[in-house]
Design brief:
By secondary structure, the protein is of the alpha+beta class. It has helices spanning 2-16, 73-86, 118-123, 139-148; strands at residues 32-37, 40-47, 50-61, 94-101, 104-112, 152-155. The protein contains 4 helices and 6 strands, in the order αβββαββααβ.
Length: 158
């Protein structure tokens, strides 16, 4: 069970990691942004430079789901789906949904920063690589970090 959680947390952390900015973002340009890379999409909602909500959708490939020789593939997939459903259930402001798709498990992680406790998010490892400032998450720093990881970010209209 702990191995599944580590795999999913590793996937989330790798997707959220970053180094330095590529370009400056003007948060006044839009209140909605989208960052994409391969099979991962971040949808960001902001009020000026304060990140209000993120929605991350990514695929956890079936070949990344390791199981022992005594467990068949379908059972391993079911266990991974059950773990995904339980992973973030106790963190206020966070929802984590998953479903089996052809290529793997599609995971959707949504964080409402207006409802969430930033210290609880930090403890869960959900802010380590974002633009965490004193009391808020910075949109411009978050986009800079995502772009430095190869994500293409742009303002979108909703």
């Amino acid at each position: 069970m702990k191995t599944w959680k580590n795999i999913i947390l590793l996937a989330v952390c790798v997707l959220l990691s970053g180094c330095h900015s590529k370009s400056k973002v003007d948060p006044a340009t839009s209140s909605n942004w989208q960052c994409t890379q391969s099979t991962t999409v971040f949808q960001l909602e902001n009020n000026q430079d304060t990140l209000q909500k993120t929605r991350q959708v990514f695929i956890l490939p079936y070949d990344a789901i390791v199981h022992d020789e005594n467990t068949d593939t379908d059972t391993a997939r079911q266990k991974a789906l059950e773990l995904c459903a339980q992973m973030f259930k106790d963190i206020h402001g966070v929802t984590f949904e998953s479903e089996a798709v052809e290529t793997g498990i599609q995971c959707t992680l949504t964080i409402d920063y207006g409802q969430a406790d930033l210290s609880q998010l930090k403890e869960a490892g959900l802010t380590d690589e974002l633009g965490l400032k004193e009391g808020y998450i910075s949109l411009s720093d978050t986009i800079d970090k995502l772009e430095s990881d190869g994500f293409a970010c742009q303002a979108v209209s909703r």
